[in-house]
Amino acid sequence: MSPKTLRALFEIRLRWSDEVVQEQPARCDGLWLPDLPRNRILLNEAMALGNRLYGDETHWIEQRQA
């Protein structure tokens, strides 16, 4: 297998600070998604909205190797 065909697969998820009060338990807490462009865009939008509503750096995206 050539080095060009080797790829590390990653997963991403949205996380938030314990200081963020949830009205209802989060249904997607801990849900890992494949790190695909569409998923990355959606999570970036959710992170930006969370940071606007609750303050800077209250929301972030975690990444792990699948």
Task: Write a structural description.
The chain has 66 residues and is α+β, with helices and mostly antiparallel strands. It is 27% helix and 24% strand. It contains one helix and three strands. A three-stranded antiparallel β-sheet has the order 2-1-3, with helices on one face. It starts with 9 loop residues before the first strand and ends with a strand. The model has no long low-confidence stretch (mean pLDDT 86).
The helix/strand class is alpha+beta
Spans of at least 5 consecutive residues whose pLDDT stays below 50 are: none
* Whole-number mean pLDDT: 86
Cα(first) to Cα(last) distance is: 20 Å
What is the helix tally?
A: 1
Work out the number of β strands.
3
Radius of gyration: 14 Å
Overall geometry: elongated
What is the H/E string?
EEHE
The fraction of residues assigned to DSSP E strands is: 15-25%
Helix content: 25-40%
Strand order of the largest sheet: 2-1-3
Largest sheet: 3 strands, antiparallel
Q: Could you write a compact summary of the structure shown?
A:
It contains one helix and three strands, in the order ββαβ. The protein is of the alpha+beta class and 66 residues long.
